[in-house]
Structure formats: structure tokens, C-alpha cells
Automatic annotation (TrEMBL):
Residues 488-701 form the Penicillin-binding protein transpeptidase domain. One of its GO terms (cellular component) is plasma membrane. Residues 105-186 form the Bifunctional transglycosylase second domain. It comes from Pseudoalteromonas phenolica. Residues 1-42 are annotated as: Disordered. Residues 191-368 form the Glycosyl transferase family domain. NCBIfam families: PBP_1b. This is Penicillin-binding protein 1B. One of its GO terms (biological process) is proteolysis. InterPro entries: Beta-lactam/transpept-like, Glyco_trans_51, Glycosyltr_51/Transpeptidase, Lysozyme-like_dom_sf, PBP_1b, PBP_transglycosylase, PCN-bd_Tpept, UB2H. Keywords: Antibiotic resistance, Carboxypeptidase, Cell membrane, Cell shape, Cell wall biogenesis/degradation, Glycosyltransferase, Hydrolase, Membrane, Multifunctional enzyme, Peptidoglycan synthesis, Protease, Transferase, Transmembrane, Transmembrane helix. SUPFAM superfamilies: beta-lactamase/transpeptidase-like (SSF56601), Lysozyme-like (SSF53955). One of its GO terms (molecular function) is penicillin binding. The gene is mrcB.
Length: 786
């Protein structure tokens, strides 16, 4: 059966038409989409605006922060720069000077001594004086153009004076105007530069002391616009680049002197952008804060110019001494050019190792000086013709006198305990006499091998020192056989038995009590001494002989043991111990009878103190090596005052010294008289048990000298004081100019004739008599022949 169709109305048909119902829906969707898009764009714009605003805020806040950090960093750099630049820029070495050679009319002095000193100071002998550091010799006249020098008591400019000699003395001193003057002096020799922890060495020189040509040479090569730029110069960098390209090699640097100073003074040598930025900032701070002259002065004293063993050589002042052994203001044009040439690279342009390349660089500096009008054509050509001549490196070796410098260093620590003061540049003026030191070293260098060959001994060691009697200043000291070895200081620290060196204290004690005279008879016979514990001591003479009664002066000069022991026991061992302490022995002296034969251990320094008091007519003054000290600007930090204390009667000392003079005339040291027959000297030999120690202590009018010989293992040497130490003393005196002792007789002493058999005063006609000094109260104006 067919399905029945249902009829569809129009209205139904229209509603079913999709076109008519879809049109209004599409229009609504578009409106909605547009609204959404607009809202999205608005939100994006807001986000972008907020982001940009945030970034802007972050930018300007960050910029402020960066600027603030930069400002604070510059402030920090400024504080760092000014603190170091205005304070102690460098740790300066301690500079040690020898004694000043002083001149005065009627002084006991020879031309030979003066010429020796001038050569050690590197003065040049010329026919006509033209500048400092020169001298002329005409007959017995020496004309000197002395250098300017800052002595501890003030600065003295360069001056000309003439020394006229007659006989064995300096007759007169004449100044440049031809007038006689009462005194003159030479600058002292620098004997050492004691380094510090910085491992840098420099000689500070003020800007006005540098030669103008040196400053011009440095600027024309390193920084032509130094006085125009503000610490950093772009034009200098560009010009250096152009010059180097044109030359095909590096002949100029781009950094200014101020930048180089900043790098050397404040920064490391690493090659990084950070360091270059710091270098530029510091250079600009320096230029803003300080004058150009102040910066140039710092650079001239800071620049590195080589290496002296473990110490860097900094500054033109020290470099002049290091390479040419002369002050910077005495350098020739070619020498100045050489120093400026080395600024570029002291190792690469080392004149000792690479003279060819160094000369090439030096000649370039000379050419630049000539091209810029600082040298004439003639000066330029003459300078070019000169070869590279520098001092050998070993000449600059420090610590050349380690024994003496050890004494200086010990005193320095006591006088200036503040290390910061020392690091600021202390200058020490000592009593060191280079002529005496040289003579002492030579006597040891030749004397010890001679003694070892002659007496068939070995491994001898020694200690020697000399003392300036006027100032009580140690003028020379050798601490051992190896004179350049800074180990055990035998002169200061090795204590050995002194033997007969103690005997003058026995005789002096007797003279002080006014119970004995030089003519008093003393017993020389067998002797036994029992101490408090019951032990028996039996002293003997060196030759094991006895002489019966003998006068005191003979027992003294011939160093006979038994008479000295008898005398010491008579006056009391405690009195002898007190006398030793009064003479300057600081340690406690044990009061045993064996003390009377030298059972007392002393150092050579102790013995020198003891004999200095005797030679100074009984006036005690502690020995020292330092005369004065100043800081780097010349302010006196310490000055030695020569205050002495009279500890013994002049009469007692006069008679003691008479005995010591006889020792060198007809006693145990009479060999001295063979070498110096016309010069009155005094001294005493000493020998310890088993010939372990050989001693001699002697003096002339100006100097006390002590010599010790022995072995470090304290084994016998086979030497007496006469055969060993005396040999060194004689060798030491020969190249010097010893002055005869000229002591004045005190009012309380008279000369009298004494019978050596009776020990009593006698008339000159009473047979064999000897003239001796005796006390006034003991003098008999009309003696008889009893």
C-alpha cells in the first residue's frame, strides 16, 4: 500500500530555508569578534605600556645605581690613591753610611789617606775642576770639588776647597775664595742598603735634583704631551700607533707617564680590560689631584730599571749608582739616554747582557733628543761614539760587611723599635772607617794562611775590631775568616778565655789603692793557693821558671804570671773583679783566684770596651757603631752624644798605660817596635790554657784594636798571643797611618829614677837606675844611694 504524503505549507517552507535564518546570526558574530579584538588590543597596549614603563623605570633606576656605584668606586679609588700618594709612597731601604772624613788644620793626616777616600767615593782626577766629583793633585796640594750632600746635621751644597799638606799633617784648608777655613769634610761612602719585605730598592731624589736633560729625554720618548693632557691622552695613543707602524716595530708606548705610574704604583701587570679601565681612572685622579711636577717626581723615583740579585732597582737615582757608580746629576748624555732607553724594558735592554740591542735603543733616544733640539750636533755625535760601559754587578752586592752590619742592625732595633719608621727610609751614619776595614780584611786574608803554614796548624778562625777613641765608635769589624759570610759573629758572640789580657786590671787595681808603684818588687816563686772548698791551685809561669823578686813594671811588660797572681791576691780578687766591671765588662765576674790568670770568658767586643776605657785615660763610654740617624726628609731621629764617665784616677791610668807601652818596647809584643820604631804604641798579649786562644789588644793615639785567633771546636792552635794575634795586628797597622800616643802627664805624677833591684827611688848616679812615673806623694826630691 502506498504511503500517504503530507502537504507542506509555505510558511513552513520559508522557515526551513536556511539562508533567511542564517543572515542575522553572522552579523552578530562579527560584532562580538570586533569587540573581543578591540579588548585584546587594548589589553596588549596596556601590557606593552606597562612593560615599557617598567623597563624605563628599571633603566633609570639601574642607571642611577650604576652611576652611584661608579661614583662610590671613584671615591674609593680616590681615597686609595691619595692615601698612598700623600703618605709613605714606598718602603725605602735603610741606607748605611761610613764615617765622614773630616779635615782640620794640624790634623795628623797623609795625602795617601785622602786620595784613597776620594777613589772610594768615585771622584775623578782631572787637570782642571769643572763640576762636582772631581779633584786635582799638585805637589802636596789636593783641590777637591765636593758633591752636595745631606749630612745628618744639615744639607751642604757642592763646594771647592784645597788641602795643603806639610810633614805628616794637614797644614791648612783654603776655600774657593782663597781664604783659610777651620774645617771641611767629604761626604761619606754608602756601605750598605738594607732591604725590606717589598724586595724593592730605590734612592729617593727630589725633582729639582734630576738633570733637566734627563727629564726632557724621558718626556720626548715616553710622553711628549705630559704637561698638556689630563692623565690619559688619545692623541698619544694614535701617535704611538702611527710611529710604530712607520718604524715597523715598537718604538713608542701609548700610555702616558701618569698611566704608567698608576700601573706600577697601584695595579698588577695583568693584561685585562678591567685593569686598563682602572689604570685610566687612577691616572685621571692623579692628574686632577696633584701637580704635573709631583707626578713626574714620583715616576722618576718609581720606574723599574733592573734587578740587583733579589732586590728590584727602582728610580733613576738608584739606577745611576747601580749602573754607573755616580750620582744622577753627574751622568753624561749617553748615560742618561741609556737609562731612558731601559724604561721600555729593563730585562730586554739589559746593558750587561745585551749591549748591542741596548746601544741601538740608546742611540734612538739620543737621536730623538737631537731632533728636538735638546742636544747639539757635536754633543749628539760625541755621545754616539761612546760605548756601553757599566759597573759589574758584583760591585753592587749588598751586605759587603756582614759582621759590622750585624752590630748596626742590633743597635738599630734598640734605638728604633718601630718597623714602620724604619721602612719609611732611615739613613744611618756610622763610625765605620773603610780604610781600616780594608786593612783589617787584608791582614786576615794573608795572615791566616801564613800562620797556618809557619806553625803547621789549621782551621784557624778569627775576630777583629777597631774602635775610634774620640767617639767610642766601632770603626772596623771582621766576624770571621769568611768575611762575606753573615753567619756566626765571632766578634760579638764568641766568648773565650782572655788569658793575660786581664792583667792590666790587676795592676790598675793596685795603683788605685796607692799601695804599689811601677818599681815595687813582686815575688816570682812557687805558689799554691787553696780555695774555700779545699782545692789547691798551683799557677805557673809560661816558661816554667822562677825569677825571685822582680820590679812590677818588668813583670807587667813580660807578662810573668806568678807576680801578677801574688799582687792580685794581695789586693783582693774582688777588687780586680770590680775593676773589670768598671772598665766596662757588663757580665758578672766570678771571683776565683784563677781569674788573675784570665779564667774569664769574654768576646772581642767586651775586650775592646775594656781597653778603650784604659786608652781613654780611664773615661768609660759604651761602644757604639751608630753616630746618627735621620728619616727620609732629613729629620734627626737619633744622635750619639759622646758623654764619658771618669772611673779611675788619672795617675793610676797613666802608670797602667806606661806598662802597656813597655809591652810593645821590650815586652811580649816588642816585635811591634821592629816595624814601628818611631811610633809609640801600647798593648797586651794574651794566651789561654793549652794555646787554645791567641789574643792581642793594642792602641795608638786614636784607635784601639783587638785581635783574636782560635778554632771553632776550641782545640789548641799552637799559637801564643805574640806569635798569632800580634801578627794580624802588625799586618793591619802597616797600610794605615798610626799616630804615636801623646798622653799628658797628670799633675799628680812625677818622673823619678828607681833602682830596679830595690824598687826604691835613687839618684841618677847610683849605678843602674830606670826612670819611672810615680805618684807625687811618693816622690823624693833628694833620694840617696841606699
Amino acid at each position: 500500500m502506498a504511503e500517504k504524503k503530507t502537504p507542506i505549507s509555505k510558511s513552513s517552507t520559508k522557515k526551513a530555508t536556511p539562508k533567511k535564518s542564517a543572515a542575522p546570526k553572522s552579523k552578530s558574530t562579527k560584532k562580538t569578534t570586533n569587540k573581543t579584538t578591540k579588548k585584546s588590543k587594548g589589553r596588549f597596549a596596556q601590557i606593552r605600556q606597562r612593560t615599557l614603563l617598567g623597563l624605563w623605570r628599571l633603566f633609570w633606576k639601574g642607571s642611577i645605581a650604576v652611576i652611584a656605584v661608579l661614583v662610590f668606586y671613584v671615591i674609593y679609588l680616590d681615597a686609595k690613591v691619595t692615601k698612598q700618594f700623600e703618605g709613605n709612597k714606598w718602603q725605602l731601604p735603610v741606607q748605611v753610611y761610613a764615617r765622614t772624613m773630616d779635615f782640620r788644620p794640624e790634623q795628623y793626616l797623609s795625602e795617601k789617606e785622602v786620595l784613597w777616600e776620594l777613589k772610594r767615593l768615585n771622584y775623578s782626577e782631572v787637570n782642571q775642576l769643572s763640576r762636582t766629583g772631581q779633584y786635582v793633585v799638585e805637589g802636596r796640594t789636593i783641590r777637591i770639588y765636593r758633591r752636595a750632600f745631606e749630612f745628618y746635621d744639615g744639607v751642604e751644597q757642592g763646594k771647592v776647597f784645597t788641602l795643603n799638606f806639610a810633614g805628616k799633617k794637614l797644614a791648612s784648608i783654603v776655600n774657593e775664595s782663597g781664604r783659610r777655613v777651620p774645617k771641611a769634610r767629604l761626604e761619606p761612602v754608602q756601605i750598605a742598603r738594607i732591604g725590606n719585605d717589598s724586595k724593592q730598592d730605590r734612592e729617593f731624589v727630589p725633582l729639582d735634583k734630576f738633570p733637566t736633560i734627563l727629564k726632557d729625554a724621558l718626556l720626548v720618548v715616553e710622553d711628549r704631551n705630559f704637561y698638556e693632557h689630563h692623565g690619559v691622552s688619545v692623541m698619544s695613543i694614535l701617535r704611538a700607533l702611527y710611529t710604530n707602524i712607520k718604524a715597523g716595530r715598537t718604538v713608542q708606548g701609548g700610555s702616558t707617564l701618569t698611566q704608567q705610574l698608576a700601573k706600577n704604583f697601584y695595579l698588577t701587570r695583568e693584561r685585562t680590560l678591567t685593569r686598563k679601565i682602572n689604570e685610566a681612572l687612577i691616572a685621571m685622579i692623579l692628574d686632577f689631584r696633584y701637580s704635573k711636577d709631583a707626578i713626574l717626581e714620583a715616576y722618576l723615583n718609581e720606574v723599574y730599571l733592573g734587578q740587583a740579585y733579589n732586590q728590584g732597582v727602582h728610580g733613576m737615582g738608584l739606577a745611576a749608582e747601580f749602573y754607573f757608580a755616580k750620582p744622577v746629576d753627574e751622568l753624561e748624555f749617553d748615560q742618561i739616554a741609556l737609562l731612558v732607553a731601559m724604561v721600555k724594558g729593563p730585562s730586554y735592554y739589559n746593558p750587561r747582557r745585551y749591549p748591542e740591542r741596548t746601544r741601538e735603543r740608546r742611540d734612538l733616544v739620543l737621536r730623538l733628543l737631537a731632533e728636538n733640539g735638546y742636544l747639539s750636533t757635536n754633543e749628539y755625535r760625541q755621545s754616539l761614539e761612546r760605548s756601553i760601559k757599566v759597573e759589574p754587578l758584583n760591585r753592587n752586592r749588598q751586605q759587603s760587611y756582614p759582621g759590622y752590619l750585624e752590630l748596626v742592625n742590633r743597635e738599630l732595633k734598640e734605638l728604633l723599635p718601630d718597623q714602620q719608621v724604619i721602612n719609611a727610609g732611615v739613613r744611618i751614619f756610622t763610625y765605620f772607617d773603610l780604610q781600616k776595614q780594608t786593612a783589617m780584611e787584608e791582614s786576615i786574608r794573608k795572615g791566616l794562611p801564613y800562620l797556618e803554614r809557619k806553625y803547621k796548624t789549621e782551621k784557624l778562625e778569627t775576630a777583629m775590631l777597631s774602635v775610634n777613641l774620640e767617639k767610642a765608635g766601632v770603626s772596623a769589624l771582621v766576624a770571621g775568616r769568611d768575611m762575606r759570610f753573615s753567619g756566626l759573629n765571632r766578634a760579638l758572640d764568641t766568648k773565650r778565655q782572655v788569658g793575660s789580657l786581664v792583667k792590666p786590671a790587676i795592676y790598675l787595681s793596685a795603683f788605685e789603692q796607692n799601695t804599689h808603684s811601677l818599681g815595687t818588687l813582686l815575688e816570682d816563686g812557687p805558689l799554691e793557693v787553696k780555695d774555700s772548698s779545699g782545692d789547691v791551685w798551683t799557677p805557673e809561669n809560661f816558661d816554667h821558671k822562677f825569677r825571685g823578686e822582680m820590679p812590677l813594671y818588668e813583670a807587667f811588660s813580660k807578662s810573668i804570671n806568678i807576680p801578677a797572681v801574688n799582687l792580685g791576691l794581695d789586693i783582693g780578687v774582688h777588687k780586680v773583679a770590680e775593676t773589670l766591671n768598671e772598665l766596662g765588662i757588663q757580665q758578672q765576674v766570678e771571683q776565683y783566684p784563677s781569674l788573675l790568670l784570665g779564667a774569664l770568658e769574654l768576646s772581642s767586643f767586651d775586650v775592646a770596651q775594656m781597653y778603650s776605657t784604659i786608652a781613654r785615660q780611664g773615661r768609660y763610654q759604651p761602644l757604639t757603631s751608630i753616630a746618627a740617624m735621620t728619616n727620609s726628609v732629613g729629620r734627626v731621629l737619633y744622635e750619639h752624644r759622646t758623654r764619658s764617665e771618669q772611673r779611675f784616677a788619672e795617675e793610676s791610668i797613666y802608670m797602667t798605660n806606661y806598662g802597656l807601652k813597655r809591652v810593645t818596647k821590650d815586652g811580649t809584643a816588642k816585635r811591634i817596635n821592629l816595624h814601628f820604631p818611631s811610633i809609640q804604641l801600647a798593648g797586651k798579649t794574651g794566651t789561654s790554657n793549652d794555646l787554645r786562644d791567641s789574643w792581642f789588644a793594642g792602641f795608638d793615639h786614636n784607635t784601639v784594636t783587638v785581635a783574636w785567633l782560635g778554632r771553632d771546636d776550641n782545640k789548641p792552635t799552637g799559637l801564643t798571643g805574640s806569635s798569632g794575634a800580634l801578627e794580624l795586628y802588625i799586618r793591619y797597622l802597616k797600610p794605615l797611618n798610626p799616630q804615636a800616643i801623646a798622653d799628658q802627664r797628670p799633675d799628680g805624677v812625677r818622673w823619678a829614677f828607681v833602682n830596679p833591684k830595690t824598687g826604691r827611688q835613687a839618684a841618677p848616679s847610683c849605678g843602674k837606675v830606670i826612670q819611672l812615673p810615680i805618684r807625687r806623694e811618693q816622690f823624693n826630691p833628694a833620694p840617696t844611694c841606699l
